[in-house]
């Protein structure tokens, strides 16, 4: 089940987040960089290909790393929830040449830099997320609290680390990008997605979408299914 299809001409069909009934999950973020190659391959295909591929999460990222030069900057998380021990792996083509297994339990943060780069917005988001998951909530209550975090418009500026990486962008754009939920003229957050998976393999997939590019109009849909054995 992918969220958000890439509709850019010549790069249609990709996504930035998806999960399959086989227990494969992938999530993609772009890497903040003003220098973009207009002829690069569409990064959204990296998610859809993993969901359909038979490679495990780490092997798939090894394959992707060998083709990394074909894409503009990206971060890709791949997970597999079918095995006795869940696996989560990460690769960013602006960082190490090799993917890594994320074996340590805990909370990881990923924005538009490398994994765990301590941008102020990322640290702010992690604090909010930690506060929510430490509460005793029903699944529906947890979803609502997480959607509330994803719509946090608080600006986290100044942030020298984000500004250094974003050299070439205007101050107004970098200021807007410092929020968890981005709001700026002609650009911003238009989809929120929360995926919950319990110990029995039950998946809850909730997505909130802006309608007609209108901040006052939103539609929320939820889907539920069980992972295949």
Automatic annotation (TrEMBL):
InterPro entries: TANGO2 (IPR008551). GO terms for cellular component: Golgi apparatus. This is Transport and Golgi organization protein 2 homolog isoform X3. GO terms for biological process: Golgi organization; protein secretion. Coiled coil: none annotated. It holds the Pfam family TANGO2.
């Amino acid at each position: 089940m992918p969220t958000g299809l890439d509709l850019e001409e010549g790069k249609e069909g990709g996504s930035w987040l998806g999960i399959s009934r086989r227990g494969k999950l992938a999530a993609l973020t772009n890497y903040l960089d003003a220098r973009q190659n207009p002829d690069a391959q569409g990064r959204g295909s990296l998610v859809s290909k993993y969901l359909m591929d038979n490679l495990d999460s780490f092997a798939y990222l090894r394959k992707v790393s060998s083709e990394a030069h074909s894409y503009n900057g990206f971060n890709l998380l791949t997970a597999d929830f079918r095995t006795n021990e869940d696996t989560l792996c990460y690769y960013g083509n602006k960082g190490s040449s090799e993917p890594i297994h994320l074996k340590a339990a805990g909370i990881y943060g990923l924005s538009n830099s490398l994994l765990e780069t301590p941008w102020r917005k990322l640290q702010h988001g992690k604090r909010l997320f930690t506060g929510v998951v430490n509460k005793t909530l029903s699944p529906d209550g947890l979803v609502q609290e997480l959607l509330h975090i994803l719509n946090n418009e608080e600006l986290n500026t100044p942030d020298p680390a984000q500004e250094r990486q974003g050299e070439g962008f205007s101050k107004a754009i970098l200021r807007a990008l410092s929020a968890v939920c981005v709001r700026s003229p002609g650009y911003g957050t238009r989809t929120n997605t929360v995926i919950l998976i319990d110990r029995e393999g039950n998946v809850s997939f909730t997505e909130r979408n802006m309608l007609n590019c209108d901040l006052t109009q939103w539609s929320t849909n939820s889907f539920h299914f069980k992972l295949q054995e």
